[in-house]
Amino acid sequence: MQINVSARHGHLSPASQSKITAKVSRLQRYFDRLTALNVTVDLKNAGLPVVEIVASAEHFHDMVSHELSAHLWRSVDGAVQKLEQQLRKHKEKIRDHKHVQNTRRS
Question: Which of 79, 11, 65, 8 is nearest to 42 (CA)?
Fold first, then answer.
């Protein structure tokens, strides 16, 4: 899985980038067909950083989560949590679709 961390209107330190990479890499636990994660941190308004995560998966459209908070790490955690929910829901849809019970009786 490829993870890209970028910043708009500012600069992230290498330590911050590695922390964000570590937090985002946990998403592969929820859905193992992820191919790429693109994290964009918008620092245009320093008091309210915006974090956007775009997850690309095999045979499925991209999933996106946004979070706006007063602190960078709260924004990162919120965006990761939103994407976790999307991945869980998608995985459940796939699993439930394949394991539909047959209601026909003889």
Answer: 8
Task: Report which residue type is found at 64.
Answer: V
**Average confidence (pLDDT) per 10 residues, the chain, 106 residues:** 94 94 91 91 91 90 93 95 92 73 57
pLDDT of residue 95: 79
Gap between the Cα atoms of 86 and 66, Å rounded: 12
Q: What is the CATH number of the domain that holds 13?
A: 3.30.160.100
E strands present in 1-106: 2-8, 34-42, 50-57, 60-68
The HSE-up count of residue 22 (CA atoms within 13 Å, CB side) is: 7
Positive or negative, the CA dihedral 23, 26, 27, 33 is positive
Residues of the domain holding 24: 2-98
